[in-house]
Amino acid sequence: MDILYLVLSYPYFAVAELQEKKEGFFMRCPFCNDEDTKVVDSRPADEQNAIRRRRECNVCGKRFTTYERLETFPMMVVKKDDTREPYSREKAEKGILLACHKRPVSAEQISGLLDELENYLFNLGDKEIPVTRIGEFIMTKLQDLDAVAYVRFASVYREFKDVDTFASEITKLLKKQ
Ligand SMILES: [Zn+2]
């Protein structure tokens, strides 16, 4: 057996690697079963969908390969009507892009926000996430980025039903600045 398949949690390889080091976890050698192994080479595989690591055992000196892949089952979002759908970065991005249309928010800031969102969701450790968690998180972040984008997002997300709710939200916002 030369290849071990590792299934890692969503979403980042880098997180997993850091975690491994922090927890003092080492991949066991498939030949002598010792934990004293090290990574000698890491490179992307399978069109960036996996990381291939060459590892070496410090005890018997043999080398083996591991592949780390994203976990394939999706994180489910529980919508307001209690139906579920897989989490979609594209969908979250679409909402943010609409709110940031013609606003001074860069593509980099938006992808940074999405990364932060996914880290946050990942750290919740739940397979099902209420859509409100996602909306509230994006709102908090947009508040720091651009007031107009924030109000646009909030008005769609909170479904402001009348001018009064909208006005009170603006007032709250102005007080904060
Ligand atoms: Zn060994």
Write the SSE topology.
Blueprint: E1 3-8, H1 13-22, E2 37-45, E3 50-57, E4 63-70, E5 76-78, E6 84-86, H2 89-99, H3 107-124, E7 128-130, H4 131-145, H5 147-157, H6 163-176
Parallel strand pairs: 1-4, 5-7
Antiparallel strand pairs: 2-3, 3-4, 5-6
Helix pairs in contact: 2-3, 2-5, 3-4, 4-5
The structure holds zinc ion (ZN).
Account of the 3D structure:
There is one protein chain. The protein is of the alpha/beta class and 177 residues long. It folds into two domains: 3-70, Single Sheet (N-terminal domain of TfIIb); 76-176. 45% of the residues lie in helices and 23% in strands. The strands form two sheets. The chain has a four-stranded mixed sheet, with no helix packed on it. Strands 6-5-7 form a three-stranded mixed sheet. 13% of the residues are buried. The model is unreliable at 1-15 (pLDDT under 50). The chain binds zinc ion. Residues 29, 31-32, 34, 57, 59-60, 62 line the site of zinc ion (ZN). The site of zinc ion (ZN) has 8 residues, from loops.
